[in-house]
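Example record used in the benchmark description.
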Amino acid sequence: MTLALGYANKARCTGPEFNEWGRSGPDYQTRSYRDVCYSDIQNLWVGRDIDRHVFPYVHGGIDPDGSLWGGVVEYPVLTGVLIWAGAFFVDTDAGFLLSSALLMAPFGLAVAWWLGRLSRWRALLWALGPPVVLYAFHNWDLPVVASSVAAVYVMHRWRASLARRSTVAAVLLGLGFALKLYPAIFVLPLMLYVFTEGGRDWRGAWRVAGSAVATGLLVNVPFALAGFQGWAASFEFQSRRQVDISTNSVWYWGFRNWTGDEGFQDAMGIVSPGLMLVSFALACWIGWLRYEKTGTYPWVQVSAAMLCGFLLLHKVHSPQYTLWLLPFFVLVHVRWGWIAAYLVADFAMCTGIFRWLYLNNQGEPSGIHDGFTAQALMIGVWGRAALLIGLFAAFLAARTTFEDRVNPAPSNFARSSRAEVPGRTSREI
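Model output (structure tokens):
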């Protein structure tokens, strides 16, 4: 139901007329902002050779001004192939939106099923969540969300050895890297989990890293060999991306008056990733402290906290990134107040940003004192940022929801602790 509503929400921007390039009219851009039905899927139909059905990366590149050509899109290769497949049989942006929705809907359904198997009724947070209506077909994010949720499902519901489960989960995270990059950050906490569960198992930890890296290479190398310039252009595009209104991050809204300065943009290329790495290290370290107390490394909670650091500190914070975070609200026990507040802030940001862009493009007053649009946008942007800081700590202090249903074998830490306490039975301990 929510996937159908998500498609219907975005389809409001399609048609009823189409120009020679298959672009919807009349006044496509104005309507998409005014009616809050904008989607990257429909918008990128023109300008990336998607409408010309050019296979991505092989023959393209990037110009000095940052323009992509020859079928190159600014996403990793598996997403590029998905985009090409969605455009294969259609000739308008409306057809492209519909075919892309049909391609991605099974991934959204799979996420719901996996979350249901892991956390039962709590999976309704995904299945009935407003972000699914707002963002399911805003961009190509359902497949990458599926890869990360599938990794958790394999680790905690598949009946196999730890070595086999962790290897398959690492492969899934490697596939996620080839879709949208961010699942790669979950490899490190997974390594630490395998290392600790296996009794300081260095071989198992490196097997996880090797499996993820090998998967990423196997997917990317054929494209690099077929057209290195086009393949590298997608990464170069992201590395060149500047902090501006299109990034919608705290860096833009907090330093808006500085964004025209070249020195500021160069500094952001260092400060933003540097702070993200600090947040990742902090999350992993706190997770290690918790392991020393409990005997189990909380890799899912650490992954959730790392994602909060990424969303807060990255140069880009696109609206649909909420889909990345939503499964962790299902998988980790955080207070309902956190979840409700985040969804409200996200809704305020989503509606506020597009209405604000509409007012700006129309030359109408859009300042903070000119109406609720700008106020809602600021509530969304800064409320979301504050909540991400709080959620970083809340995730690390919480337990997973699937712990309520599973009684795993004692960890090596717990087993060794029982063995080392003389004169006490395991029952007493």
